[in-house]
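Example record

One chain of 323 residues, shown exactly as stored in the release files.
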Amino acid sequence: MGDAAGVGPEIISKAFASVELFQLGRPLVIGDYAMMERAVNITKTELNVVPVTKVEECVFEPGTIEVLDMNLLPEDLPFGQVSELAGDAAFRYVEKAIELAKESKIHAICTAPLNKEAMQKAGHMYPGHTEILAELTETKDFSMMLSAPNLKVIHLTTHVGLRKAIDSINPERTHKVITLADETLKNAGFENPRIAVCGINPHAGENGLFGEGEEEEKLIPAIQKAREEGINVEGPYPADTLFFRAARGDFDMVVACYHDQGHVPIKVMGLEAGVNITVGLKGGIIRTSVDHGTAFDIAGKNIADERSLIAAYKDAVELAPTI
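Predicted structure tokens for this chain:
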């Protein structure tokens, strides 16, 4: 459900009003019954909110929001404010989802946004969802992937400062992410995925003219190794033209070197269309998410857009293991 002081419950309510969710899969909310009941009243979706204590109780009927009720928050939780209670609850919802996924009681996780400040205020010192999922599944090699119509991006680094991001890139990490990209696309039905790697420096270093040889040290050895293993990967290419090329269909996936290099092109294409996917989790656990934040400034006002959540749900269903 995400941070209940933000727009998570509202976009869930609006998404559940779409019969398409039930045609594609069997949706269940992990969160607080009282928060979802409040969201339905705000959005006027006229849905029936039903608390459940275990997955086996669910019937998955259109017009109904079944909530695995963890009962962690007060009914009068303020909107739009950083709350230690809401931050802790948002973490607990993810923790519960991972537990159920490990038990194969759910087959994919789709997350509404949490607030990093609120979560850390509650003592959960993670940069975001991706790192929570990695630690709780004991996954060492993982990556954040973003998906939008006509463009998919996977990252070498994410929630660290730019200087630290560049320092932390090495051939081993680059090779692992290229491999994750190839495996993810093949699992999604791509027979011979076309992958391209962004340069770290302007013009991908332009043969040493820019930077201090980062492309030659950190990227090129990994690209060469992956190609020797049969992966269809090219680069490093200048980022200022690579995303355009990928969006027009030249490549199926772009490997971005740091957070903003990959996030900006996706978000320019529309926040309502972007989906955040965690790649490489142990046990094959699938997790997708909206590609926007808690939007505290509009929480509780019934103006939040649910389209990114619906897109994330569709991707979760598509990537989930066959059952």
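Notes: The mean pLDDT is 93.
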